[in-house]
Design goal:
mainly beta, single chain, Immunoglobulin-like, 2 domains
């Protein structure tokens, strides 16, 4: 029979900062001879010509040649190998971990499969601030949050009337690859209404309001 690698799940979605385990399976046929087994996990990022070594087990020995990005974060669950399961665990997920992963297994035959990892960072906490501009008799209401991918920000008053068109929304990228989104709305100080801002992470259809 042909040696084939199987993947029980082709797509994984991980929350930024969490851990993920991705699995591919291979035929063992009896008890595992570790000295004959090689497992290579590598990552290919969009727009990057080079693939990154994530974890390499060659002839049963661990090779510490993984890309700096994965140092101390990527591990193979060795106790699962005897069951024909090559499970890669990545801890403290980063935005840059997203991409296509190739799991290559050589054990009396060789085969590989691809797995996709998507990373999201929810806009969990919205920081709000109100500043009074005495000279202009106005209030400036600011909402700020971090997440990934880029969120849209909507504003409305307590009558659910949209004020998004009057708001000014900007963003910067943090060192970790998150979007730091700031949205401000200016209104006259004699207004007694309540205002709310909503961050919409469109790709994951998640909404957070303040």
């Amino acid at each position: 029979a042909l040696f084939t690698v199987e993947v029980p799940q082709q797509l994984y979605v991980a929350e930024y900062g969490s851990n993920v385990t991705m699995e591919c399976r291979f035929p063992v046929n009896g008890s595992l001879n570790l000295g004959l087994l090689s497992v290579v996990w590598e990552q290919k990022r969009q727009g990057q010509p080079e693939s990154r070594d994530v974890y390499t087990l060659r002839s049963g020995k661990i090779l510490h040649s993984s890309h700096l990005n994965y140092m101390g974060r990527a591990a193979l669950l060795h106790n699962e190998l005897k069951s024909g399961r090559a499970i890669l665990q990545i801890t403290s997920i980063k935005i840059t971990d997203a991409g296509l992963y190739r799991c290559l297994i050589d054990y009396q035959g060789a085969d590989y499969k691809y797995i996709t990892l998507e990373v999201k960072a929810s806009y969990k906490k919205i920081n709000t601030q109100i500043i009074r501009k005495w000279d202009e008799d106005k209030f400036v209401f600011t909402c700020q949050s971090e997440g990934f991918p880029l969120a849209e920000v909507f504003w409305q008053n307590e009558k659910n009337f949209s004020l998004t068109g009057s708001a000014n929304t900007t963003y910067t990228l943090t060192a970790d690859g998150l979007y730091n989104v700031t949205s401000t709305l200016t209104f006259k100080s004699n207004t007694s209404e309540n205002y709310s801002c909503t961050f919409w992470n469109k790709e994951w259809n998640e909404k957070t309001s303040a």
